[in-house]
Amino acid sequence: MRQALPSLNALRAFEAAGRLGSFKEAAAELHVTHGAISQQVRLLEAWLGAPLFERHNRRVVLTAAARVYLAEIAPLFDQLAQATARYGLSEAVSRTLTVNAPATFTLRWLVPRLEQFRARHADVEVRIETSNEPVESLRDAYDIVIRGGPDTFYGYAMRPFLAEERLPVCSPALLKRLPLAVPEDMRRHTLLHTSSLPRVWPDWIAQANMPAFTPAAVLTFDHFYLTLQAAVDGMGIAMGPTALVADDLATGRLVAPFAGPRLPSRSYCTYVADERASDELIVLFRSWLEHEGEAFAGAQDA
Question: Which residue range or ranges hold the HTH lysR-type domain (predicted)?
Fold first, then answer.
């Protein structure tokens, strides 16, 4: 009979945390959340019936017994990786994950980060389709559906992973040509709208306390990614979701002329059929999304 073994995920979390001396760094290495590492370590401690770490505020230190345990199991992970790599030369079968997500989110947030996931999980083939259809209206079955939320759909498990706000953004060239010192200065500008988001500008203008505001012109697009591209091209001012324009702001393709007000926006969430929620591959990708969402939030707060 095979001897009972603890969860491989729990062992991986313990090995990384013990080797790095940090739950945070282990989470970054494994592309999961800090909470996921803590949970897996607790599961392993419960399975072993003994503590593995001493908690000192934000630091964790291996117990004496755990140091011995780590020294014994760490080489096994290297052996397992080498054996898997050798087997993978001829026998590996790619695992496929199907994801359905909004086009603008996919283009501006998911795709630029996806290579990080693929670099660590080369055996996973991620297939992405884009749409804005409601979760319950999708005709095809997907492993993971990404939509705004949080919403509740019968038969689906929901988890938020990325929060954002909206604020006006424009190109540096436009700002140089028509400076914006205060929101009222936007009267000289073209406001860029998206037909599917008719309330975004009116809501922001109300928060900015400009009840009689009228822009120089209005230009409306049927897709949001076209609206943002028009802003990059200097055609006007768009309401930019902070997550989707973060890279543009960082590289200077776009600028945010005003610090506020910032318009609250729905979070991005993953929706998974209840019966698939514990699937190892789905859990892996969801945890990676949540880790990336935490990293984005941390960068915004820094």
Answer: 6-63
